[in-house]
């Protein structure tokens, strides 16, 4: 029977009765019912969820999102509002740490996001923004091409002029967010492919240089290499590593993430490394899940498992090996910020603190509400500039309240996000990765080397 609205420009209607909408999820790894059923609705996760803290709405809490997933597996369609609540999740995993029932929200949201990316049609504006983000951020070479123009923009004074007018924020909030996040760029030579251990060799370590890390924080990579070598590690850095896939997997682009993962495994398994070290928390948490990501791939499942077993965050590896290099005093007060993907996703809190406390003269301050995300969350701050700035401002105020002169963390996204919040509040604090603090101590550079960038 022909639909009477056909060719009239009106929305089609089913003349045989109401159209049964497609259920939210298909059979390709929907959020698992058994994992959903683990949630006993106690609500312990609510106060640790940044979106619940911001808006106080049940649907923007972990419990509310699990409820929506349950609706979806029960056959409800994937509505725009459902997608919005899932999109608003930062993936910070604070709820995973807080949950007394051990609910695997990380698995649930990852599977949900992959379904959304395959089955939901986004608005043209959202599609264009996401296409631009994923054509740029996972490609270190493309990011490095931005360094020259960005440096010229910063040192010419144009950036300050643009900020003073406030025009960019009004006309293009996403660009304004990117502008506010961009770190001050410095020229640093790239580390060689192989760096010998200093003294007795204790381990052979493959190192991820990362996308944002290598393009915008090359000094963090240089410090990481020096610290590893000083601690007796031979460091191997094969060129053309590409992306680890963290950004893709955290945004539901599973097939893209798998391609990146296979490439990285194939490149590094030839090196004969004992460990694979990562200095960016977001990357580390994804690398530790390569075994799950590639579990269905017969050619890579066992290789991914072997690779995953070797992955270590820098602080984790240094704590495991124990210090051999002499620590020289650093007379400085630092505030340590827990990157969500280090603390919540990898459970690494004690090791960086122990490494910092091991430096004579250094005073370590804790930041209030450490479990609440700073709002960076991969590209969440680019996709959601306003709430991200609110979270960034909260974190910046808590950081400034410590009175520390250096903020230390282990994720490039957090460094950029908190720095932007601090600038908005007219504050000043130097920023450093844990590796840079250790490097300054081992090389006896004094506290001035850390606080000079303030
Ligand atoms: S991952 Fe973070 S933002 Fe998402 S539900 Fe859990 S606590 Fe909330
Ligand atoms: S804490 Fe765990 S069990 Fe309780 S509501 Fe949150 S996810 Fe569910």
Automatic annotation (TrEMBL):
Q: Which cofactors, if any, are listed as required? A: [4Fe-4S] cluster
Function, as annotated, reads: Component of a complex that catalyzes the oxidation of glycolate to glyoxylate.
* UniProt keyword terms in alphabetical order: 4Fe-4S, Electron transport, Iron, Iron-sulfur, Metal-binding, Repeat, Transport
Pfam families, per this entry?
CCG, Fer4_8
Under catalytic activity, the entry for this protein gives: (R)-lactate + A = pyruvate + AH2; glycolate + A = glyoxylate + AH2
Output the PANTHER family linked to this UniProt entry.
Answer: GLYCOLATE OXIDASE IRON-SULFUR SUBUNIT
Work out whether the entry's keyword set contains Cell division: no
**Origin species:** Paractinoplanes rhizophilus
The record describes how the cofactor is bound as: Binds 2 [4Fe-4S] clusters.
Question: Glycosyltransferase among the record's keywords?
Answer: no
Protein name as catalogued: Glycolate oxidase iron-sulfur subunit
Q: Which InterPro entries match?
A: 4Fe4S_Fe-S-bd (IPR017896), 4Fe4S_Fe_S_CS (IPR017900), Cys_rich_dom (IPR004017), Glc_ox_4Fe-4S (IPR012257), Helical_ferredxn (IPR009051)
EC numbers: 1.1.99.14
Q: Where is the 4Fe-4S ferredoxin-type domain?
A: 29-59, 79-111
